[in-house]
């Protein structure tokens, strides 16, 4: 027996663990946790909350699909199993491996202004325990090559923001129709509207409604209204960003402008960044 979302015991012989039919592939720091938690409000969605790192970690992958499937939640046949591992988007072995599991897998990718995402990535890197208390270089110092005054494109937070490059690898194995791109800025401003598009993409009824959310002024973000309590994302989501010098911002905007255009051409959507 197991419990449903309301906490009642349910005995249902038709529940079993299934491979995910939908994967949130990334991108790191664009709102992947919010997307997964919010989608899990839908009765026909069952989320694996832990990042599985199945397709990007060779040791995990070597354990095979049966190992992966056993780590998924039990579901009824009409439910969609979802997992999210943001590293999938940028790790080059992953698209082919997901295709080999099931070529009809639905892919969710959440994107956010690449500069904001890079800053968030920098903040994340320097907030880990090992970095705590240590002197660390400013974002400006890390992002601009002092010799050339240009953006260091190999700096990981920048490299991970070059969306078109990573996406083109996925499009070698999946068609655009199997991919839905969630607008990270919209998910912050108006989660219900952005989630409706995902429900449509997954072929599900619109069941996530405004009643499930309230704006938390202290946090500065929408939080969830659950049956018995309210739930915000953890304090590590929605961190303060450092101030960036105007010169660095200008160099970054020039660096990303043509890259953003390439992405817009690739997907046929203009996010209006820059
Ligand atoms: P910041 O901490 O830079 O603001 P991920 O889950 O992929 O690591 O993404 C983290 C980002 O999710 C946060 O980045 C924040 O902007 C965004 N986010 C979107 N909706 C949110 C929400 N309702 N509560 C908190 N953070 C949210």
Automatic annotation (TrEMBL):
Keywords from the named record: Disulfide bond, Glycoprotein, Transferase
Disulfide bonds: 223-232
Active site: 29
Source organism superkingdom: Eukaryota
Organism: Paralvinella palmiformis
Keyword Zinc belongs to the record: no
Residues of the full protein shown: 101 to 374 of 374
A GO MF label: [heparan sulfate]-glucosamine 3-sulfotransferase activity
Residues of the Sulfotransferase domain: 20-257
Name of the molecule in the record: Sulfotransferase domain-containing protein
Residues that hold 3'-phosphoadenylyl sulfate according to the record: 29-33, 112, 120, 222, 237-241
């Amino acid at each position: 027996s197991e419990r449903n979302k309301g906490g009642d015991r349910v005995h249902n012989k038709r529940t079993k663990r299934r491979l995910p039919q939908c994967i949130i592939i990334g991108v790191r720091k664009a709102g992947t946790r919010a997307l997964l938690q919010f989608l899990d409000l839908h009765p026909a969605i069952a989320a694996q909350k832990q990042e599985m790192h199945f397709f990007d970690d060779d040791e995990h992958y070597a354990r095979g699909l049966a190992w992966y499937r056993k780590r998924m939640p039990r579901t009824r046949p009409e439910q969609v199993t979802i997992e999210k591992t943001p590293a999938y988007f940028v790790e080059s072995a992953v698209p082919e491996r997901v295709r080999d599991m099931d070529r009809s897998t639905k892919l969710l990718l959440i994107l956010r202004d690449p500069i904001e995402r890079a800053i968030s990535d920098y903040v994340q890197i320097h907030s880990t325990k090992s970095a705590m208390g240590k002197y660390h270089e400013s974002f400006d110092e890390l992002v601009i090559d002092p010799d050339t005054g240009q953006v260091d494109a190999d700096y990981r937070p920048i490299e991970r923001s070059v969306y078109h490059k990573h996406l083109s690898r996925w499009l070698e194995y999946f068609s655009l129709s199997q991919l839905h791109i969630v607008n990270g800025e919209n998910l912050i401003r108006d989660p219900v509207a952005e989630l409706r598009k995902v429900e449509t993409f997954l072929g599900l009824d619109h069941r996530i409604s405004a009643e499930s959310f309230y704006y938390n002024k202290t946090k500065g973000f929408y939080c969830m209204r659950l049956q018995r309590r309210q739930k915000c994302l953890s304090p590590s989501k929605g961190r303060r960003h450092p101030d960036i010098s105007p010169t660095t911002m200008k160099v970054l905007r020039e660096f990303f402008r043509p890259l953003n255009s390439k992405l817009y051409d690739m997907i046929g959507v203009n996010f209006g960044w820059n």
